[in-house]
Amino acid sequence: MNPSAKRLAWTGLVVAGFVSLWPSPAPAGHEAVGVYEDWRGSSTLRSDRWLVREDGQNEEIALGIQGHRLTMRNRREGATASDAGSVGGVQALLARNLSNIDRMEADLRVRNLEVSGCAANPGQTLVRPALLAVSAFNDGTSDAGQTGDHAIQVQVNGPIDTVDAASVLTVQANVVRCLNAACTIGSSPVFALGIATLPISTPFTLRAAWDRPNHRFLVGVNADPDVELAYDAALDTANARVPFASVRTAVVTANCTAGHTTADVEVEVGEVRTNVSAIVP
Fold it and tell me: Considering the entire predicted model, what is its pTM?
């Protein structure tokens, strides 16, 4: 590690710059990544590689392979009964072979993005075009389902309430912990760090890895240096009870009596890479 990297202690986590350029090599003794999916072997989603899941209250969902890219589309409109609260929906693409995945990379491009919020209920309507997530360990807090499971996420956030030519995407790294057995709304960030800003129309690559022997996560965007999120080794008491590795899109719309708010996103998923031993031929 770069000895000059800045380290910040925060509730058992340490954040530091990790000097290596994309594509990042695997940590010493770890597998390199290989192509898990390039969308060339079939005109439909391969059920031995992928599972698709929807959560929340989605209205329009589309998924399909076009020109060696998977297109994910998610749209919803807000309710008009009040000017308080918001409702969200998530579309998740989950890798099937989970036993060997502790790192994932994905090439992505936002094809379309629409955000229309509400003056009476501001800051609630937004799009998250992409979220790359890999589960890690359980902290032993409870034996109730996923409670205590930890995961690393690289989350892309779109503009809030409105979008124009000057809008950008922001990228943050999150370490999250499940607070309930189903890890639904109980999934809570224990650490969040902004790591990049991207033009909306430019393709980008996200990386997320769990380096268990060294008690850390590594995340990155494009050719930027990796960012290290180190954690207290005492937190890692067992494997995550429900492992996963996924690419997701999400939309959130504010409730607004003046009219329907709108959040709409269409994103291309290009090549996806994981540990070579997890690749399904």
Answer: 0.88
